[in-house]
Amino acid sequence: xxxxxxxxxxxxxxxxxxxxxHRTHLLSALLCLEGMMLSLFIALSLWTLQLNSTSxxxxxxxxxxxxxxxxxxxxxxxxxxARTHGTDRLQSLNLLQC
Length: 98
Prior knowledge:
The protein is mainly α. 73% of the residues lie in helices and 0% in strands.
């Protein structure tokens, strides 16, 4: 495994571990998701550069567009939950009361 592959895989795993174990605030969960998407974007960009093919050149841009949509939906949910519940703590959100 090259150092670049190790860096991006460890970056993705750290984001996943942060998402799994540090679930107190919705904002921290969204930041972990963005870190995971950033590592996937950089890894996919380097992978297309290593292949030297033009057929995969649109893949990183498509992933970046989906990441932007995910971020905007997450921030909209953060604002909505902060307005209705008064906090962004995940323990205050109960799906049975919706």
